[in-house]
Amino acid sequence: MPYYPARVNEHFLNPRNAGEVNQPDAVGEAGSLVCGAVVRLSLAIDEGLQRVTQARFRATGCGFLIASASVLTETITDLAISRAASLPETAFTDWFDGLPEDRAHCAALCRDALHAALANYHRATLNEWTGDEALICTCFGVSENSIERAIHTGSLRSVDGVTNTNGAGGGCGSCRPLIEDILEDYWRTAAIQPDSGAR
Amino acid sequence: MSDLIYLDNNATTRVAPEVRDAMQPYLADLYGNPSSAHTFGRKMRQAVEHARAQVADLLNAASPDEIVFTSCGSESDNWSIRGVLEAHPDKRHIVTTRVEHEAVRYLCENLERGAYEVTWLEVNEEGLLDPESVRAAIRPDTAVVSVMLANNETGVLFPIEEIGRIVRQTSSAVFHVDGVQAVGKIPIDVRLMNVDLFAISGHKFHAPKGVGALYVRDGVKLSSFMIGGGQEKGRRAGTESVPYIVALGAACEVAKTFDGHGTIRRLRDTLEDRILGTISNARLNGTSDRDRRLPNTSSISFEHVEGEAILAQLDEAGVCVSTGSACNAESHVSSAVLRAMNVPYSAAQGSIRFSLGRYNTAAEIEYTLDTLPGIINRLVEITGV
Fold it and tell me: Which residue, among A54, A153, A63, A75, has the nearest Cα to A106 in the 3D structure?
């Protein structure tokens, strides 16, 4: 009878991707003052494809934390950063066929570290790019223009649709009302000019 | 070597075959009630009184009448403190330490929220208690001084004899000692230690779970634990658990004649020395003066690693230990004992208690020593410190 639930135990005993990415494009950390756990993610990101090409973790904590970090790095490798950013909270519970209620925070900590890493990546790119567009999602550095472009190209109708496309709104969530406004404006204008792209 | 390497003997112990044999008949044909007047009942009474004498003998009590059977160590501890307070309603002050077992610590915290005042004695970084701090804490209204003999996590021993002398010389307070972790591991002499109340628990020294005892020195005022049929001279009502009482007596006999303490100590020393000598982030919790620690216990912290993770990997390898850190969402309480000793957080969260017993072998210790470094290395690698 393993100490941890079977799938957690498997990742805990054979963690994937422990370590550091050499010259990472993004790093993110998260820690809990309550339980003392710390997790650090380092990522290599293909700038052209906007895709995570390599993910590594460091973790000080219990088996749930180590297993969550392991499974997270496995999942986000080769994933578009927008998809990585919008991994739902339930992802970890799905991977592990459920987590005990008092250990859900271990998985949440790994997700926080991922968001911190992606925010770190976007801040770095934003610093290089001095655009004058309004920045809507500060977590992932997504501007108003790119949100409008995403709505137009993908014919998006919901905030979740936007988040799934470019990550906007997937972090702290405080910009979600703004994204909703942009969606509303876009589709109101589209209704007045029916051939502007909406199908 | 059996599949299971049990290095958690401070948590509980295997029932000794001698103990099992002694109690067996009382789970079968000898089922009478010791309070019954017929011969069959009186036979049970005889068995209970024989066990009482065995317990008194191990503790060196002046008389078997000073031994009362209880259900466990926590009961003995709770009854001691509550019973003294109830018997001395004019006194509302308690003296105890920061590192007591929960049965004393949580009870005193509870009493402190009510009508009682508690003085919490500090220990130093080695876990040692200065007996003079007891003298300073005692007041005219001190009802009870409660100090453990051996710490369950670190094995550190407190100078009970000296503390007992101070209590007796300077006050009329009752001196309660939680002896649960010490009995069966070191010689006990309640008279030499100047103790008034001494709590013991059977399953810590090879009796089954569910039986304990309290030594109540003749003349100490203690209110009854349970009112009822007048068993245990009215001090603790309830039909005696004859098989378990017989088992406790047999365990005392076994402890009295056990001569393998030197072996246990040598195995513990080997384990401790080699861990501290070969694993770079390992540090000992509690004094390095082994004469001031139980001969079977080593509490060792592995810095920057989570104790639960070590425990889980040792578990996977078939080795049973304990960790001083409990992990959950509300709190990651590194143990109160280690906090009282000012063990740094990065070490306290990685504390592992190894507690040996009479059934451990040199081969088991070798296996543990072969397995542990790899486990710690892997976890340190993941941590990356």
Answer: A63
3-state secondary structure B166-234: HHHHHCCCEEEEECCCCECCECCCCCCCCCCEEEEEHHHHCCCCCCEEEEECCCCCCCCCECCCCCHHH
CA-to-CA distance for A98 and A106, rounded, in angstroms? Answer: 13
For residue B344, the surrounding DSSP H or E stretch is: none
pLDDT digits (tens, 9 = 90+) for B86-127: 999 999 999 999 999 999 999 999 999 999 999 999 999 999
Helix (H, G, I), strand (E, B) or coil at B120: strand
A60: closest chain B residue by CA: B383
Find, among B251, B249, B252, B253, the residue nearest to B46 by Cα: B249
Q: How far apart are the first and last CA of chain A?
A: 56
Q: Which residues contact B135 (CB under 8 A, 6 or more apart)?
A: B166, B170
ipTM of the complex: 0.85
A155-159: Cβ within 8 A, 24+ apart: A155/A197, A155/A198, A155/A199, A156/A183, A157/A183, A157/A187, A158/A183, A159/A183
Q: Residues of A with CB below 8 A from B332's CB?
A: 32, 34-37
Condensed to tens digits (0 to 9), the pLDDT of residues B143-185 reads 999 999 999 999 999 999 999 999 999 999 999 999 999 999 9
Half-sphere exposure of B52 (CA within 13 A, CB side): 23
Q: Provide the greatest CA pair distance for chain A.
A: 65
CA distances from B111 to B218, B234, B337 (A): 26, 25, 20
SS3 state at A59: strand
Pairing label, strands B325-327, A38-46: unpaired
Residues of A in contact with B306 (CB under 8 A): 36-37, 60-62, 65
Nearest CA in chain A to B348: A36
Euclidean distance between the first and final Cα of chain B, in Å?
Answer: 36
Residues of A numbered 60-79 whose beta carbons fall under 8 angstroms of chain B's beta carbons: which are they? 60-63, 65-66
Mutate which: B328, B371, B376, vs A, most A CBs within 10 A: B328
